[in-house]
Amino acid sequence: MKTIVFVLSVSILVLFFLPLIAFAGIVTIPTSLSPSNQYRLAFVTSTTRDATSSDISVYNTFVSDVANAIPELNALGTTWKAVGSTATVDARDNTETNPYNAAHVSVPIFLLNDTKLVDSNDDLWDDSIDLPLDITEAGLQIDTDVWTGSYSDGTGSFWVFSQISQELGSTDSYGVQVGYSLRSDVGWVDRSSYQPTILRSFYALSAPLNVPSPIPEPSTLILFSIAILSILGITYHRRRRATRQSYRKKPDADLYYARHKSKTELYRFVNVNR
Question: pTM above 0.85?
Answer without folding.
Answer: no
